[in-house]
Amino acid sequence: MKHTSTKIIGITGGIATGKSAVSSILREKGYRVIDADIIARQVVEKNQPALKELVAHFGQAILDDDGNLNRQALGDLVFSNPQFLEDLNRITHPYIFDRLKKTIEKDCLHYDFVFVDVPLLFEVYDELEEWDIRFHEIWLVYLDQDRQLERLIKRNKLSRSQALARINTQIPMDEKKKLATRIIDNRGDLTDLRNNVEEILSEFIH
């Protein structure tokens, strides 16, 4: 990535650990947050090349009646088969990383700090480096697996086995703790989370 004095901070966690809540708090405080999930949704919109490739690979069953991606159908498919998940990533990641890199470079012209919310940052770390997407620090939104499982079941209305299948495709949270620069503890309520974010911001920025 082009030389920049902007500090680029990765925000990551695990499924249902609270990354979106942390990103919302950062935005409320006026910081620029790039959401890789939003980019991932944009690249598979109707008529986009990535969606055409997915349909060619997985078939029309991943589309709804209007020709848009049926995310539930695709999710049920790829989380039941590791090879399908690998195929999904192989097809979509180049589109996602290309747009992510261009967005970061553009924002570095205007902001001193840019936060980049990448749900599976550690899982795709090598690929990010290949695209020359690098971070000054990586902050992990932490939740123990019992609470993570409980929140995922409630949020996505999944069975326990479905939720575990999704969690088990990711690096365990305790392993991610060892890799992160800073830990944002989300085992409490929203007020606790806000306080934890503010404390880390104070340490990092001042």
Can you walk through the features of this model?
It contains ten helices and five strands. A five-stranded parallel beta sheet has the order 2-3-1-4-5, sandwiched between helices. By secondary structure, it is of the alpha/beta class. Helix content is 53%, strand content 12%. The protein starts with 6 loop residues before the first strand and ends with a helix.
What proportion of the residues form beta strands (DSSP E)?
5-15%
Structural class per helix/strand content?
A: alpha/beta
Helicity level: 40-55%
Number of DSSP helical runs: 10
Nearest-integer average pLDDT:
94
Order of strands, main sheet, comes to: 2-3-1-4-5
Uncertain stretches of 5 or more adjacent residues: none
- Rg on CA atoms, Å: 17 Å
Give the beta-strand count.
5
**N-C termini distance:** 26 Å
Order of helices and strands: EHEHHHHEHEHHHEH
Question: Mind summarizing the main beta sheet?
Answer: 5 strands, parallel
Task: Give the overall form.
Answer: globular
Task: Explain the layout of strands and helices.
Elements: E1 7-12, H1 19-28, E2 32-35, H2 36-42, H3 49-58, H4 71-78, H5 82-107, E3 113-117, H6 125-130, E4 137-142, H7 145-156, H8 160-167, H9 173-179, E5 182-185, H10 190-205
Parallel strand pairs: 1-3, 1-4, 2-3, 4-5
Can you summarize this structure?
It is globular, with a radius of gyration of 17 Å. It contains 10 helices and 5 strands. The chain has a 5-stranded parallel β-sheet with strand order 2-3-1-4-5, sandwiched between helices.
